[in-house]
């Protein structure tokens, strides 16, 4: 999503999307109709109004617009993929407190990103937004705008991808966070759109009043404060698990029956095993993509299950790009991205949760048992460390671990061509003691982010403390001010 300082108004963005992407793509494909696009939005305050303005900009350039209403990000992408139509989703970044941004996708489901047309769209929209609006007002296009609710077809699709009809009865507490999960969960897991009832009892928290989903800001789903009520309700009701969604429903946090957080790596393993098994039943050779920061345990387990494992760089875009290149059936990252080939490479927190429910509901083992067995390694979690000079901190780590090989032979992954300020992943996993760490610059350029994993807690702490010492070694001494 564009930064706040470079945000075009929604009308201008819709007009630019039509002129730079929608209509040229239609012409290249040989289409002769006026073209159409889907527009959806999350439940945050102002998102519906921005979606309507964006739709007006598209229609002003002659594009027929179908408003799918409040929906999850993956529901919009699924509808766009099924209809082979471009789309736009107005959604807030979780926990940002900023106005909603817009995700644009082409008719083949590919996001419009920095390397695939986004700068041209933004440049066009920002150049003369007032002139764009004025021109549209003087010479309005003949595009139409109509409603096309997507929840029913979305629910049918997700149920076809994760069958829950034969699971044992489960009680599920859902923290909707005043977001679209308040609509999507009852539609997919309940009977809100007329589908048969499943053996699930669903309790939805923070649903918001009807038509007022965004009555409170949507936090990031992994925010500990956001999970307090969910964890307490799971324990109080004796529920089987809890689910916390972000504003647009594409990310999910899972808690077990004790209210304890289930790691993204464990969720990835539960999801990946089911997708790998399905691929093998259909006679295919399964491939999965795992973010390089996801626990080695996930790669070990899925490889043992018969999958080829591809490691991707950081972020959802890299994950989806690697999936598209490898034909992977599923991809996962510790950033709560769970992407699915059969859902047009969309991230889907709800489909990931359904796979967890299917596994849990197929036997009598509680979710905490899976979390314990599937996470045998010790991981530090991501730590953000202030530094005076990011490049110098990285150089000290490279000198110690790579140049001098002080810890023995290692495998090094340096994204972005090994740039001095880029990320760095160092692995010593082929021989004992097994460990790896990842060091990346923080978003503000004044911190680094460190993640360490090892085969046991002692080795993890030793590597963590050694890398932290190297990172901090060049910082100027901090002295307290004296009166």
Written overview of the protein:
With 483 residues, the protein is α/β, with parallel strands linked by helices. The chain folds into four domains: 4-149, Alpha-D-Glucose-1,6-Bisphosphate, Chain A, domain 3, CATH 3.40.120.10; 152-260, Alpha-D-Glucose-1,6-Bisphosphate, subunit A, domain 3 (Alpha-D-Glucose-1,6-Bisphosphate, Chain A, domain 3), CATH 3.40.120.10; 264-373, Alpha-D-Glucose-1,6-Bisphosphate, Chain A, domain 3 (3-Layer(aba) Sandwich), CATH 3.40.120.10; 378-472, TATA-Binding Protein. The protein is built from 15 helices and 21 strands. The protein has helices at 10-28, 47-59, 73-83, 118-127, 129-138, 151-161, 181-189, 224-237, 264-281, 296-304, 316-326, 349-360, 367-373, 390-403, 457-472, and strands spanning 36-41, 64-70, 87-91, 101-105, 145-147, 170-175, 200-205, 241-245, 252-255, 261-262, 287-291, 308-312, 330-332, 338-340, 346-347, 378-379, 383-386, 411-413, 424-428, 435-441, 447-454. The strands form four sheets. Strands 16, 17, 18, 19, 20 and 21 form a six-stranded antiparallel sheet that branches. Strands 4-3-1-2-5 form a five-stranded mixed sheet, with helices on both faces. Strands 7-6-8-9-10 form a five-stranded mixed sheet, sandwiched between helices. The protein starts with 9 loop residues before the first helix and ends in an 11-residue tail after the last helix.
State the gist of this model:
With 483 residues, the protein is an alpha/beta fold. The protein is built from 15 helices and 21 strands. Residues 1-5 and 478-483 have low confidence and may be disordered.
């Amino acid at each position: 999503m564009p930064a706040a300082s470079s945000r075009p108004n929604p009308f201008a963005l819709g007009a630019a999307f039509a002129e730079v992407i929608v209509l040229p793509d239609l012409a290249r494909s040989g289409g002769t109709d006026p073209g159409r696009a889907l527009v959806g939005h999350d439940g945050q305050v102002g998102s519906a109004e921005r979606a309507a303005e964006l739709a007006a900009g598209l229609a002003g350039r002659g594009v027929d617009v179908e408003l799918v209403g409040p929906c999850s990000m993956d529901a919009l992408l699924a509808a766009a993929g099924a209809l082979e139509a471009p789309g736009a989703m107005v959604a807030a970044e979780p926990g940002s407190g900023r106005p909603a941004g817009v995700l644009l996708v082409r008719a083949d489901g590919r996001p419009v990103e920095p390397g695939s047309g986004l700068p041209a769209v933004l440049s066009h929209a920002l150049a003369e937004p007032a002139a764009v609006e004025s021109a549209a007002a003087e010479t309005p296009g003949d595009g139409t705008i109509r409603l096309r609710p997507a929840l029913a077809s979305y629910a049918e699709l997700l149920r076809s991808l994760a069958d829950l009809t034969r699971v044992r009865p489960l009680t599920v507490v859902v923290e909707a966070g005043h977001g679209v999960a308040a609509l999507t969960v009852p539609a997919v897991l309940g009977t809100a759109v007329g589908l048969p009832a499943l053996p699930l009892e669903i309790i939805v928290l923070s649903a918001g009043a009807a038509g007022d989903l965004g009555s409170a800001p949507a936090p990031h789903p992994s925010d500990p404060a956001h999970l307090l009520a969910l964890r307490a309700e799971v324990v109080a009701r004796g529920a089987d698990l809890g689910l916390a969604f972000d504003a647009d429903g594409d990310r999910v946090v899972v808690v077990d029956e004790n209210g304890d957080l289930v790691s993204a790596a464990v969720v990835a393993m539960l999801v990946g095993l089911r997708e790998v098994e399905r691929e093998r039943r259909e006679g295919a050779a399964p491939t999965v993509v795992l973010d390089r920061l996801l626990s080695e345990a996930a790669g070990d387990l899925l490889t043992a299950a018969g999958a080829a494992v591809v490691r991707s760089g950081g972020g959802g875009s890299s994950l989806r790009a690697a999936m598209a290149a490898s034909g992977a059936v599923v991809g996962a990252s510790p950033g709560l991205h769970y992407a699915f080939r059969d859902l047009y490479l969309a991230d889907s927190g709800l489909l990931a949760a359904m796979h967890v429910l299917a596994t849990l509901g197929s036997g009598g083992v509680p979710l905490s048992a899976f979390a314990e067995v599937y996470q045998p390694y010790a991981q530090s979690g991501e730590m953000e460390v202030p530094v005076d000079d990011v490049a110098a901190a990285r150089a000290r780590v490279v000198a110690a671990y790579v140049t001098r090989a002080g810890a023995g032979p290692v495998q090094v992954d340096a994204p972005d061509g090994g740039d001095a300020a880029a990320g760095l992943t160092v692995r010593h996993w082929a021989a004992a003691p097994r460990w790896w760490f990842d060091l990346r610059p923080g978003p503000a350029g004044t911190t680094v982010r460190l993640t360490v994993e090892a085969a046991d807690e002692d080795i993890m702490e030793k590597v963590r403390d050694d890398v932290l010492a190297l990172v901090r070694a060049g910082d100027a001494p901090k002295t307290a001010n004296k009166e």
